[in-house]
Amino acid sequence: MAADWDARYSEESRIWSGNPNQALVAEVTGLTPGTALDVGCGEGADAIWLAQQGWQVTALDPSSVALERARAAAESAGVTIDFRHTGLTRMSQSFDLVSAFYPALPKVDDAMTDLLDAVAPGGTLLMVHHVEFDRDRALEHGFDPDDFVSVDEVAAAMESASWQIVEHAVRNRDVREGAGAHHTQDLVLRATRSRS
């Protein structure tokens, strides 16, 4: 998995726009900063934006190429982020905000449980995926979308008293640069874990 992501990031000197995701800004603005976990942080734009808003950020990615770029970008932005070279595993702590954007979570072992358990009581999970995607293009890059946990699967796993779904809807996006610029809609899931 790490080698696949390294190969993807090595194709270009920069893959993404360098701007935070629009859904992240829309959903997180107004939340009280605390601890945040960015799952699949890529080149670091979301983690950097969170840190600039006052969040204490831990950012995970399996790609050493992406993390090298993310560390350099964070240093340039003057923010401190705990970057970790790993995919999502069982975390030793829980977080006030867990952010997982696009196909960041493989359907392996207890990945869904690890994602939900990473959210602290009273905390927020924000998961976003493109509504439309080019399956053939993804497969060309060695990524099968069916191998990753979907937003709807996570929403279905939250059908219990311990979660309140705040948002589960399609949202338009306007991105003009970077590899995701051709996507015009995202499926956004924002949910809050109960305190008990």
UniProtKB/TrEMBL annotation:
UniProt entry tagged with the keyword Methyltransferase: yes
Keyword Disulfide bond attributed:
no
Where the record annotates domain Methyltransferase, the positions are 37-123
- Cite the GO molecular-function annotations of the record: methyltransferase activity
Q: Which InterPro entries match?
A: Methyltransf_25, SAM-dependent_MTases_sf
Query: Which CDD domains does this UniProt record tie to the protein?
Result: AdoMet_MTases
For this entry, the protein name equals: Methyltransferase family protein
Keywords, sorted A to Z: Methyltransferase, Transferase
**Pfam families attached here?**
Methyltransf_25 (PF13649)
* Domain of life from the UniProt record: Bacteria
Gene Ontology terms: biological process: methylation
